[in-house]
């Protein structure tokens, strides 16, 4: 790795940054330098339509600000009037624009919005479908309000986007140049990460056209810093810009970017590679150095190549040192932009979800401000290698930079539509040139850019937000960031569920970090899949008898003792994560990402059920008449048969086992016949943690013999099963046919899981969710997406994007980190899927169907997708990477009704920006797990309890607060406390 780990203690890093600034900055001189700028801006505030004013009037923390932001994000892309009306009514209806406002213009706008709401229909009680009152005026009124709202959003977009085309943007820039000769521009062609190669090539053409246009007005005799420039996103130029695809990125992306570099170099322009997320930083440096080497070899005179750096990353200072070393190595002068950072919330969530040791970004705003200053000092200290470009709207930061720079040349940068007031004053008193970062593109494409800018600058703690707030005093606004807060502002990921004694989150792995993935690859080399002897089904009765005998002592053990054993096993499994991941890759053909997630889920199950058992198995005193006590308590039932599947041979296996053991039952564990080794190794951990051998027995063998014998054996107190609906029904009938007690069955089965997409959804988010849900894990998840329903008005474009994204997936050997889709579990599964594919090839419209896999791997089924005519034409679940797509129109509630009619009810996805529609659709659906605007896989223990209804299972939900109750019997104990001669307590109380 080029840089240290991104997951280091925040306080240690901040201490280092503070030391790096000693003697370099006197904050006592910053305040008097920045104060006049602030006073001038407050005396002459920006116009109402400037972003700072909008954020002040409608902060994003308010319902009104959130409504306007969401309308700006979605309304322009909605093609049909019905959805546009529903979206507008939904968002404006959630906020109160009748309240007081601070300015005449804002009061006028609020009144206009409030009046407009009266023309909009109320949302029905159905599924967020706007219902206009009868009559022409009502219908015309709603459409007029939507048209006016569309125009308002377009005007809003003009404040943040310099032009919809490069020519339009350059025209605006020329006007600005005439007013302020020191202004320069860096154009950003709006567009986020490419999902398809066609997207990437389209963005490439856009960049080429932009550079050629900028070049037409460039001065080729001077230096690039005096010309306008361009900023490019690497993720927009390659659909798989990620660490796992490093080899392909270097082969395909570097030549594309070099094409742009040649154009920029020959025109003497600044070309800046924009910053990406933390997990792409090392890859970005590989690409950057490869390009730097080419610049040195072929365009050594060019001084305009550069990189954007994010100060909120804990590795920012090391990044600057590394880039400086690259510049000196190749004898280049680079132009480097320093920014605060734009993905903070996403980085925090990713770190929490992955269970990583520390955050890769600073959790305190003042720590980011401090890091920015330390990074600025490092950039200013290397004028031979770096021309610094400081992007900030913070007056104190600008004053600090001016103080540290001395005579070192640098430039300042601001966003188009932001910071105009501050820079109006700064440009009067400093000679530093100012460059405007100027987005260019269609207003409907400004989603990610706009939301990032609003989140970045709209927080109550941001300088931009506080600048116009007279209640924030000068001392508070310009307070020094040069101090250390030792504790992070957020709980670390291992305390996601609370501080001790709350359950500890499982430890995870960032596979993009070489030092974190190395133990997994080492374990792969050292691990062999052990053989597991088959159990003789003729001895099933003996196994049950031994389990029943062990039950008498295990169920009498205190619940705290049983819970402690599960926690010890969880800690051992956490420590053995690399070995178990290697086992899952080798035995179950898991990809590395899926293997890590499964081990973590198993750890979570052990800890969660330990906590839950201690919670529910405490006796409950019940109220009643005087003279008696009443107590409700739970007990175990006896030996449970746990039958687990091959698709989650560790997590589901241990989840079933842990639930039964925690509640005082004993276990006869029958793992899937394809994956007994990982189950056997898990059993060893539990035995070592204190679970008696007879209380937990592993009985490996075919379901038809061993499983059937265990289910039929007398003395079995319960059965928990995960697998197909067909086998669940066989078990149900076998239990019903037995003499003796009625035996409970917990069954979790599959389903024809659907996702409904309306026309307000963002296509890129839809495609990400669909590809993950349908094809990850080779489609071998109970929760995997089988049926995608897309509104007809957007279907063509979304289907084309899904097609392109699916074709970018790598199907192959799961041992390889680059593999997205591994093989299905065995030949039987492969042959069954092939029969379905033959039928679909004949009956449906083929959308994605590779002729043959790129790699020769047994049982490999690449992603397939088909368009079918209707929902009811999908009659059975295909347990593999096969997706059915249907176009829908009409009312959403009718779509939900048709999904319900299929009879399954496991998972459902809803993609819409209409909140009331999502809530109402969820209420109407007979489905266990519903996910809005995300994928539909990867339920987290204790966070998204998992399980369905109908043909998808019996419930209760695994990983939820009601699951353990099903493993228990209930007992009420009533004691007559007066039997020994009277009610002494009552008599004493009345005395």
Question: Your description of this structure?
Answer:
This protein is 46% helix and 13% strand. The chain starts with 9 loop residues before the first helix and ends with a helix. Mean pLDDT is 92; it is low at 130-137. The strands form 5 sheets. It has an 8-stranded parallel barrel, surrounded by 7 helices. Strands 20-21-22-19-18-23-24 form a 7-stranded mixed sheet, with helices on both faces. α33 links the parallel β23 and β24 (929-932). α14 (365-380) packs parallel to α15 (395-405) and α23 (577-588) packs across α24. It contains 34 helices and 25 strands. The protein has 991 residues and is of the alpha/beta class.
Low-confidence stretches: 130-137
- What's the average pLDDT? 92
Number of strands: 25
Please state roughly what percent of the residues sit in beta strands, choosing from under 5%, 5-15%, 15-25%, 25-35%, 35-45% or over 45%.
5-15%
Instruction: State the end-to-end CA separation.
Output: 80 Å
Strand order, biggest sheet?
A: 3-4-5-6-7-8-9-10
Number of helices: 34
Helix proportion: 40-55%
